[in-house]
């Protein structure tokens, strides 16, 4: 295999897996989880493209992890709103300052590239913003959503989506 052609998973899929792994670990009795920095050269070998940077330039996983830390920085896992294997995950994170501020993170763990329009039943009364997972240095894109009586209707796919509420 020629240099630059190795693809175990795409850079987009790597970002999804890394962020979702941290989210799942946050719901477990784990004290810490680490992502070891590794710069890759996109080499055709096991773990040859597993870095969060390539040739010291950020990859989508770098930006996705940065967003995760910025968005959930002072929040802690509160509870699982949905935990349906192979269908839908939605976790609630509460601010440590005892405010009513919440962040919900939802994704589809189906292993397919498709997404579905779904209604998430959320306990929060007001949704402030809904943004997609970041994969570049640009601000994360706002996601299309519609307020429902007891939650939100939005497109949910493999990439985590962040719902800020109170």
Can you describe what's shown?
The protein is of the alpha+beta class and about 170 residues long. It folds into 2 domains: about 10-70, no CATH class; about 75-165, Immunoglobulin-like. The chain has helices at about 10-25, 60-70, and strands at about 40, 55, 55-60, 75-85, 90-95, 100-105, 115-120, 125-130, 145-150, 150-155, 160-165. The longest helix is centred in the N-terminal third of the chain and has 16 residues, at about 10-25. The radius of gyration is 17 Å and the shape is globular. The mean pLDDT is about 90.
List the uncertain runs: none
Helix content class:
10-25%
How many distinct domains?
Answer: 2
Q: Briefly note the structural class of the backbone.
A: alpha+beta
Tell me the radius of gyration: 17 Å
Question: End-to-end span in angstroms?
Answer: 51 Å
CATH C-level class of the largest domain: Mainly Beta
User: In the CATH classification, which architecture of the largest domain applies?
Assistant: Sandwich
> Mean of residue pLDDT?
90
Beta-strand content? 25-35%
Counting DSSP E segments of at least 2 residues, the number of strands comes to 11
Summarize the biggest pleated sheet: 5 strands, antiparallel
The global form is globular
Order the strands across the largest sheet as they lie in space: 4-5-6-11-8
Number of helices: 2
CATH topology of the largest domain: Immunoglobulin-like
What string, H for helix and E for strand, traces the elements in order?
Answer: HEEEHEEEEEEEE
Compact summary:
This protein has helices at residues 11-26, 60-72, and strands at 39-40, 53-54, 57-58, 75-84, 88-95, 102-107, 116-121, 127-132, 145-148, 151-156, 161-165. The protein is of the alpha+beta class and 166 residues long.
């Amino acid at each position: 295999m020629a240099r630059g052609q190795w693809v175990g998973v795409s850079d987009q899929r790597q970002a999804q897996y890394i962020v979702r792994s941290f989210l799942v670990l946050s719901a477990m009795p784990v004290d810490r989880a680490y992502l070891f920095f590794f710069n890759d050269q996109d080499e055709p070998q096991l773990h040859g493209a597993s870095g969060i940077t390539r040739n010291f330039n950020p990859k989508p996983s770098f930006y996705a992890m940065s967003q995760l830390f910025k968005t959930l920085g002072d929040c802690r896992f509160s509870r699982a709103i949905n935990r349906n294997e192979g269908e839908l995950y939605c976790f609630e994170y509460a601010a440590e300052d005892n405010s009513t501020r919440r962040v919900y993170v939802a994704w589809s763990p189906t292993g397919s590239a498709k997404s579905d329009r779904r209604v998430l039943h959320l306990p929060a009364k007001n949704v402030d913003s809904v943004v997609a997972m970041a994969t570049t240095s640009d601000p994360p894109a706002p996601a299309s959503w519609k307020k429902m009586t007891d939650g939100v209707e939005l497109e949910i796919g493999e990439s985590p989506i962040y719902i800020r509420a109170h």
